[in-house]
Specification:
Chain A: Pfam families: S-Me-THD_C, S-Me-THD_N. The complex is a heterodimer of chains A (366) and B (461). By secondary structure, chain A is an alpha+beta fold. Chain A is built from 13 helices and 17 strands. The mean pLDDT of chain A is 94. Chain B has four domains: 76 residues, 2-Layer Sandwich (Beta-Lactamase), CATH 3.30.450.20; 166 residues, Rossmann fold; 71 residues, Helicase, Ruva Protein, domain 3, CATH 1.10.8.60; 51 residues, no CATH class. The chains are: A alpha+beta (366), B alpha/beta (461).
């Protein structure tokens, strides 16, 4: 079994931001806490799907709500431990390891924090492969598995138990409780056997996030960084990263009636005189280059700040900043017809069908 | 030499019968020459028309004469190694003797058709051509900026990563390289990496498969020919692949299959950096970097006199070994998804995933045909299977029937009939319920068909 020690945390932080596709939140403070904890108390085991006990039961832990609020009021992991204890009581099962639902942003670190507190190992896989805003946008849902029983602890410390059979309903009800309970919640749920997890989770995403994040530590130049990024990503279940655009942030806007935020870039370097627009709903969902679709969800659209050569969330983009926009294909598990019905562009109100990066840039990929 | 008589002058002995006879003979000779010239022109016209059609066809095409000798193959047939696939995948003699129109599937994935040609009841020869599905799919909205990092080369395997790193380093030099590895390991891809990372990248990259081209055509393909050097030679001659690769890279695939006479000729090219076309008298200087590749054991071939030792040392200045796919288990899942996405796009299908069980089987299967086999397998599955999830039942029979080697105690258990009901049911699922499947299963278990039926009855399967 591999072990996640304190040296993994900085790469996981950057990898998590990149996989957040503009959203997912970032939590530098939680990363520092984890680093200290792992250095002090020892590493957390990382289990591959192949090594799960087929009949053993595993549970997921995660943060729901505003990552910014989680940053202000730093969770210590005890909330997740409490939720997990409750879930154990409800199901009468001992959990053999913890599962990550959303392998990006703040939620790639939080299960690790809870794993360190409980002494349980973490499964090297997740159910989103990136950041998504809603609870039903998981491979559990694609496989028609419900997230319940689920125990949620709100930011005021109150416990809520959910047993909905429908994941859309679960999303609505948990979101309401989180909204009323201070904007952040911590849950334990999705109790599932090893044999099922093997079938549905996207494998090796935690170790991939760390490998990806490593590229951003001492990156050298941008071209060097991009070359490394291509080497790491093409040898993964995602697919090669591709530079979509480089430019200066010209405008950050909002289309109030349609829930969309926008970031407009004016091209620099090889893209001079070109325009790039990104449509956002929490995550970067659709990108246009000179009014033609350049990438769309579930493929990832991520920013790199060209001054620091680090990945950044869309909340950290400000006018005048020079950024590179990098696309990365989502794993095939998110691109099937069944998955696109839940995480495709039409689920966010976009009227046309999904156009995969591999098709838009076919000569680059094949 | 003059005949002593000029046109317009009165002919000597013009009224003699012998003069008249001479005139008749000369006239018939001229008529016959004109007829021949016309027929030659028509033959040449047909030949050039066939060549043009072959180029425009977009499918692989091989033409055979009535004795089954290859008389023409187009570039696509060459790229697809069609002749070799056809030779290995069919009973070629039987097919050519049957002389009937036939549909075939080579390597489980390449549909081809054989069509005979007749004049009345006389058999003239035949054509073999591919019938690949039309892949008219709108792709490539943008041409991305050239990016380093080789996005099309998928490998995590440390041995292969090292081989790629060596290839990129030696690309900068002009040394001759010998790529060694089993068929289908991607030797041509390696040669392309070397070319594209070399100072010759703006020059041509010319590839020729020495095993795919019939021996009688290989010399003229490689060295070109001068006009009139043999029957059917094109007017004005034709440059060979070596000449076409001038200031670029020549990739000689399956060099171990090169006939000995050509080995000597190639050696002279390497030594003198000049070539002479077939039927030519004047050597032409050339500037070519040669990358050769083979899956054969050249050392053994040298020992048995099938391969020239001096040529081996000339070619093997920098040898690079490419590991077979069975030594790269960490790459199999990545390659499966890489090609699954590719063919889903090309065939306009929805994206697919592999089930956990299918992946486990595909990871243990030894892939004797390496990446080529894996790519063909994925193309086959994507083409024929409409399910979103590729399970064990969707895999081609040879893979489904593959079972990892068992320990001696497990084999003993099987012989003594200690195979559980679940295990037998799973095996039956893999080998199929048909009589042929059961026969294969019995062979696999090392028991008779009758015993297998007894076990099936016992387990009520």
């Amino acid at each position: 079994m591999q072990a996640i020690d304190d040296k993994w945390i900085e790469p996981l932080l950057y990898g998590g931001i990149f996989l957040g596709s503009g959203g997912g939140g970032k939590t530098k403070v939680m990363a520092l806490l984890l680093q200290e904890l792992l250095a002090d108390k020892g590493a957390v085991g990382l289990i591959q799907l192949e090594d799960l006990e087929p009949e053993g039961v595993y549970a997921a832990v995660a943060i729901m709500g505003s990552p910014e609020l989680a940053e202000e009021n730093l969770p210590a992991g005890h909330e997740g431990v409490r939720a997990l204890e409750q879930l154990k009581g409800l199901t009468g099962k001992e959990f053999l390891a913890l599962v990550t639902v959303e392998g990006a942003g703040v939620n790639i670190l939080y299960p690790l924090l809870v794993a360190r507190r409980t002494g349980l190992p973490l499964v090297d896989a997740d159910a989103m492969g990136r950041a998504f805003p809603e609870l039903q946008m998981t491979t559990f849902h694609f496989a028609q598995l419900t997230g319940t029983p689920l125990v949620l602890i709100d930011s005021r410390g109150r416990e809520h138990i959910f047993s909905e059979e429908d994941n859309f309903l679960l999303e609505l009800n948990t979101r309401q409780v989180v909204g009323e309970g201070g904007g952040v919640g911590f849950f334990a749920g999705f109790p599932t056997t090893g044999s099922v997890l093997r079938r549905i989770l996207i494998p090796r995403t935690i170790s991939f996030a760390a490998e990806l994040g490593q590229v951003f530590i001492n990156p050298g130049s941008y071209s060097h960084l991009l070359e490394h990024l291509v080497v790491i990503t093409k040898n993964s279940l995602y697919g090669s990263a591709i530079e979509l655009f480089i430019g200066f942030v010209q405008d950050i806007g909002k289309i109030e009636t349609l829930k969309w935020r926008t970031i407009t870039l004016r091209g620099s370097g090889p893209y001079t005189d070109e325009e790039f627009k990104i449509l956002i709903q929490n995550e970067n969902l659709i990108a246009y280059r000179n009014n033609r679709v350049a990438a769309m969800v579930p493929d990832l659209i991520s920013f790199i700040d060209l001054e620091t050569l680090k990945p950044i969330n869309n909340n950290d983009v400000s006018p005048g900043m020079e950024v590179a926009v990098i696309g990365m294909p989502a794993p095939a598990q998110l691109k099937t017809k069944k998955a696109l019905n839940v995480v495709g562009p039409q689920c966010f109100g976009y009227k046309s069908g999904y156009e995969p990066l591999e098709k838009l840039y076919f000569s680059y990929y094949y | 030499m003059g005949v002593g008589w000029q046109f317009g002058e009165p002919a000597p002995f013009a009224d003699s019968p012998s003069w008249l006879k001479l005139m008749v003979d000369i006239s018939s000779l001229l008529a016959s020459i004109l007829q021949q010239e016309k027929s030659w022109s028509l033959g040449e016209l047909s030949r050039q028309a066939v060549e043009l059609c072959g180029q425009l066809l977009g499918e692989g095409l091989i033409l055979f004469d009535d004795r089954g000798e290859v008389i023409y193959q187009n570039e696509i047939a060459n790229e697809l190694n069609l002749y070799r696939q056809f030779r290995e995948g069919t009973d070629i003699n039987k097919l050519l003797q049957n002389r009937k129109e036939t549909e075939l599937l080579l390597n489980n994935s390449l549909p081809v058709r054989f069509r005979p040609f007749y004049y009345g009841r006389d058999y003239l020869g035949g054509a073999v051509f591919t019938r690949r599905e039309r892949r008219e799919v709108k792709t490539g909205a943008f041409e991305p900026r050239e990016q380093a990092g080789l996005p099309k080369v998928i490998c995590k395997n440390p041995k292969l990563v090292k081989a790629i790193s060596i290839a990129r380093q030696v690309a900068l030099t002009d040394s001759t390289i010998l790529l060694r590895g089993e068929s289908g390991t991607g030797k041509e891809m390696f040669a392309r990496i070397i070319h594209e990372n070399s100072p010759r990248k703006k020059g041509p990259f010319i590839a020729i498969n020495c095993a795919a081209i019939p021996e009688n055509l290989l010399e003229s393909e490689l060295f070109g020919y001068e006009e009139g050097s043999f029957t059917g030679a094109r007017r004005g001659g034709k440059p060979g692949k070596i000449e076409l690769a001038h200031r670029g890279t020549l990739f000689l695939d399956e060099i171990g299959d090169m006939p000995p006479a050509l080995q000597a000729k190639l050696l002279r090219v390497l030594q003198e950096k000049k070539i002479e076309r077939v039927g030519g008298t004047r050597p032409v200087p050339i500037d070519v970097r040669i990358i050769a590749a083979t899956h054969r054991n050249l050392e053994e071939m040298i020992a048995t006199g099938q391969f020239r030792e001096d040529l081996f040392y000339r070619l093997s200045v920098i040898p690079i070994y490419i590991p077979p796919l069975r030594e790269r288990p960490e790459d199999i899942e990545l390659l499966l998804y890489y090609y699954a996405k590719k063919y889903c796009i090309l065939l306009n299908k929805e994206f697919k995933t592999f089930t956990y069980d299918a992946l486990q089987l595909l990871k243990t299967y030894p892939w004797p045909g390496n990446i080529r086999e894996l790519e063909n397998t994925v193309e086959y599955i994507v083409t024929v299977d409409d399910k979103e999830e590729i399970g064990v039942e969707s895999l081609p029979l040879p893979i489904r029937r593959f079972y990892p080697p068992r320990s001696s105690s497990e084999r003993k258990n099987m012989h003594t009939g200690r195979v559980s009901r679940e295990e037998l049911a799973e095996l039956l699922e893999r080998f199929g319920y048909s009589t042929e499947g059961k026969r294969e299963l019995a062979r696999y278990l090392g028991i008779s068909l009758a015993t297998l039926y007894r076990w099936l009855k016992k387990y009520k399967l």
